[in-house]
Amino acid sequence: MYRYFFKRFIDILASLIAFTCFWWVFLIVGCLVKTKLGSPILFKQERPGKNGKIFTMYKF
């Protein structure tokens, strides 16, 4: 039960806490990418994950 419910809940909660603490850093990096490199700000790429399952990764 821990593996299926609690770990997912803790991962989401930790992500939300980290995002709320560092949103201003993402905003600054996004502005710098826009001025220095132009559009698009976010780069989207599909990569293989665990057991070969494809997931989409976003990065600046």
Please supply descriptive tags for the structure shown above:
2 strands, single chain, flat, two-stranded antiparallel sheet, 60 residues, alpha+beta
Give an account of the 3D structure.
- The chain is of the alpha+beta class.
- The protein has one domain (2-59).
- It is 58% helix and 20% strand.
- The chain contains 1 helix and 2 strands.
- It has one helix spanning 2-36; strands at 43-48, 54-59.
- It has a two-stranded antiparallel sheet with strand order 1-2.
- The longest helix has 35 residues, at 2-36.
- The termini are far apart.
What's the pLDDT, averaged over the residues?
88
Poorly predicted tracts of residues = none
Helical fraction: 55-70%
| Total count of helical runs of at least 4 residues | 1
Tally of discrete structural domains: 1
Biggest β-sheet description = 2 strands, antiparallel
Termini gap: 36 Å
Order of helices and strands: HEE
Q: Total number of β-strand segments?
A: 2
- Spatial shape: flat
What class would the helix/strand composition place it in? alpha+beta
What is Rg?
15 Å
Estimate the strand proportion: 15-25%
Q: Strand order of the main beta sheet, please?
A: 1-2
